[in-house]
Every structure is written in C-alpha cells, then in structure tokens.
PPM-type phosphatase domain-containing protein
Amino acid sequence: MTGSGAPGREAAVALQRAILGPSQLPDGFAVRYQPAVSPLKVGGDWCDTVELRDGRIGIVVGDCVGRGLEAAAVMGQLRSACRALLLQDTGPAQTLTALDRFAATIPGADCSTVFCGVLDPQTGQLIYSSAGHPPALVGLPDGQIQSLDGGGSIPLAVRPEIKRPEAEYVVPGRATLLLYTDGLVERRRQSLDEGMAKAAAALLRRRSDPMDELATGLMDELAPASGYEDDVALLVYRHPGPLEIAVPAEFTQLAPLRATLRSWLQRCGLQQLAVQNVLVAAGEACANAMEHGCGLDPTQHIQVSGTVTADDIELKVADGGQWRQPRPVEDIQRGRGLALMRGLVNRVTVTTGIAGTTVNLQTRITS
C-alpha cells in the first residue's frame, strides 16, 4: 500500500485488531464476526468471553448504533468496561447497571444493546440480563427451540438510573446456545420474528455439527444473497464443553479417570445404561493404551478427549506407542478388548502411526 493514506489505514487496522473479540475461547465456544463496512475488520458489534476466577465464564454480545470506525470506537469502550466489570465478580444485572451509567458518558453509546450472562460450564447454569438485545436461542437435542426472553430491559443510556433485572436458565446436556446481534436476523421487508424463526430453524438443522462448522454454517445460511447489510456478531456454545484429560500410564489412574469421564457423560444427558457402556469401552481402551502403548511407564501419558453433539458422543484415547496384535497361544485370554468395545459402542476405529495410536469410540445417542 502506498500514498498518504497508508499510515492512517495501517493505524486503523491495528486499532481494529486490538478491539476485536477474544483471541482465545473457552472450550465449547465458537464466534463469528462480519462488519458491514468494507474493508474494515470491525464495526459496532462485538462478542466476548471472560473467564472468571471461580471457573464460570462471562459471555457478552453487544451492538452499538451506527457503523464504521465511529461505532467501533464506542464499541471498544463498552467492551472493555463490560469485561472489567465482570472481572470484579459483578453479576449480569449489576454489570449492565454500571455499564448503563458509563454509556451515558460516551457520545454515541446511547441505545446500544447488550446481552450479558455468566455461565457455569459444570452445571450449565446461565444467569443473564439483556439491555434491549434480541433474545438468545437454545437448540435442544430433541429438536425443540427455547427463547431466553427473561431478564430484559431497555437499551443502554436511555434511562441510566433504572435497576436492571436478570433471569436464570440451565442449559441442558447436548443443547446449543446461540447469541447474536440483530444484523443476523433483521432484513428489509421482513419482520424480526421471521428473521429469528429462520435463525432458530438453522440452529436446529445444524445442532449435530461440530462447533466451528455450526458457527460458519449459520453465518452462511442466514446471509442475504447480496450480503449482510449490517454488522453481525454471533457466539455459540454447546453444553458440556469438550473433555480433555492427560493421565500417567499406570493402572492406578484408571479409577479417577473413570470418575471424571462419568461426570462428563452425565452432563451430556446420557441415560445410565449408555453411560455405563461408554465407560466400560473407554476403560478398556485406556487400559490397553497404558499397557501396550506406553508399557505402563508412568513418565508417559495417555490423552483422552471427548466431544458431544445433539446425537453423538465421540471419545478418543491416544498414546505414543504402536499396539501389537495379540499372539493366539501366548495371549489366549487377551486381545478381546476391541471385540468388547465394539459390542458396547456403535463404532470403533484404531489409527496407528509414527506419533502413536489413537482409538476412536463413537456412539449414537438414543432418547
């Protein structure tokens, strides 16, 4: 880029990058953002996640009036203030009450809308408050949709003295939460209710997609043929978030590993028989990985990861070795692990390579 405008453009791009949403997201989240004004990378909409000291997560989606750098400058101030308030362990209603007074001092911040929530990723409890923002949508695994209409009040800086309400909701296992700005659902010659209904239908159709595919798919599916006319920000979360465990390769670690896995499977909303089947299959895979992949060397570790959608559970057990096939005479009582696993879950695949061996367990969830 050359010419007198280059330094200003570079400064604008640096500013935009500094005030965009979080660079790293907690497990289970995905975000997408698209400004209406090209070639800017940021506008008046934002989304944010704030990891709090007690393990809960602050989640925020907001929309400032206007477009371009002017709206982005207002957005950056509101986003920073909201993040700072949440880090002081203020609840959503208290956060928006304070943000209300702050917004009243910023030119151009009046009538901004914000959804502010605090999520407990262990229990799915969501405490939230909304300052004139479109309601969050929850896609349930049974194909139903829920709209979070509680905790609502007027946009920011309209009446800064009002006390903000808040509401509570428990996100069920395998449900997907969608937060968004009105650019996703507002269209000319279409009511807001119609736009929200289309977003809800798209969310349900994609409730079994991995999170990144879900976020991208929603943006693509809901985009008008001519492209979005307003800034769009969206945030999606599926409960519970992914499971990630690393444990030393010794059998004494199997009991605590099973306890952690059991808790995660229960949070996924599985029935007890399904929990037990997955636990036994995963326990067999972990024991084999410890013994055959790591030689029961406690300085080595196995990795256990899990993801869930509305319809499926997928677990992966990885080690750093290469399994050997059992010898019929020497291992007459051994080598039955794969058959056992295949009898308990819908699909078992074993992938070996230079980096080690990964056992993939997939099971279909039936209600």
The mean pLDDT is 89.
